Amino acid sequence: MRAPWWFVVPAAAMYLFVVVVPSLRGAVYSFTDWNGMSAEWDFVGIANFVEVVTDRRALAALRNTVVLAAVVTIVQNVIGLLLALALNSVFRSRFVLRVVFFAPVVLTPLVSGYIWSYLLAPRGAVNQALISLGLEGWTRDWLGDPATALYAICLSIIWQFSGYSMVIFLAGLQAIPEDVLEAATIDGAGAWRRFWNVVLPLLNGAVVINLMLSLIGGLKQFDQVMAMTGGGPGIATETISTTIYKNAFSSGEYPVSIALAVVMTMVIAILATIQYRLTLRKAD
């Protein structure tokens, strides 16, 4: 009988050559002046990283990415938790509603972005609904206004992935022993105290997972931004991912793009490590 680790060799080899090797080569190129085509390049030290932290567009993209990730993380998890609490109750249509709220998750982010681009267009469904309610003064070009474009993208992301957070919270809620809740009720705890002092602490693992997944997803957001605004108007909705793409394939600034990608990868790796540590602590 062969050793069990032989079964992971094909997948490990694929991961090594498709992910690890290109990532390491990219990290090396971030310290060079490679133009993306030539086989010759020179080391330039940290010059590319200096350009990243001094470039106005990159800094604007960083700010937008932080705002987007923060808004999406907070709102998506609040909505997901509220949906999970509501649909954890026993009523006839709860299974149908779970499917309905989870359904947007199966769409690709690109499709979700196109749907919301149509809804938020100047003559789209949102503005038409406002007009029909007599709120013409509230209508606007939601994706063409720098003040609202980024939050419109946040709305699209939250709509698509709140159901994903709901499922994780729902799994956590259903793992809570019923006798624990009954004991809290017998002790005189009301609905709010049961939630705050019993349910929420027992949901700690689900909370950590949801927060980290939504935060990391927000930090690397690309598809919906490109589908809805392309980073515009101006640079109002540029994110780190769209800046990497445009620097590499529009401006030909490959080393700067790679340096920015390395920075983003390190940030996400740190967050993933934090999530892993917190999850282990919860398991212990």
TrEMBL record:
It is found in: Cell membrane. It is a multi-pass membrane protein. Its main location: membrane. The chain crosses the membrane at residues 66-88, 95-116, 149-173, 194-216, 254-274. One of its GO terms (biological process) is transmembrane transport. Pfam families: BPD_transp_1. One of its GO terms (cellular component) is plasma membrane. Residues 62-275 form the ABC transmembrane type-1 domain. Coiled coil: none annotated. InterPro entries: ABC_transporter_permease, MetI-like, MetI-like_sf. Keywords: Cell membrane, Membrane, Transmembrane, Transmembrane helix, Transport. Belongs to the binding-protein-dependent transport system permease family. This is Raffinose/stachyose/melibiose transport system permease protein.
